[in-house]
Amino acid sequence: MGDFIENEFAKFWISEGILFFVYNPNIIIDLKAAEKIVSDRLKLQNEKAYPIFCDTRGIKDVNKEARDYLAKEGSTLAIAVGFLVDFPVNEAIAQFYVKTNKPLVPTEVFTNKDEAMDFLHSFLH
Amino acid sequence: MKSEKKKERIDSINRMIIEMASGNFSYQVERSGHDDELETLAVLLNMMAEEMRESFHHQGFVNSRHKYRHIAQITFILDQKFKIQTFSALTAEILFLQPEELLGIPFPDLLTEDSKKVWKDLEPALENNSFNKTVHLDFQTPDSLIIPTFCSVSLLFSPNDENRKIIITAVQTVVQSEETEAVLQKAIRNGKIDHKVRKKAGKLRVLRRESDVAKIKEVYLYILKNLDEPLLSLKELAHSFGTNEFKLKYGFKELYNTTVFRFQTDERLNKASLLVQNSEMPLKTIASITGFKSFPHFSKAFKKKFGYNPSDLRKLSRKK
Question: What pLDDT was estimated at residue B220?
Answer without folding.
Answer: 93
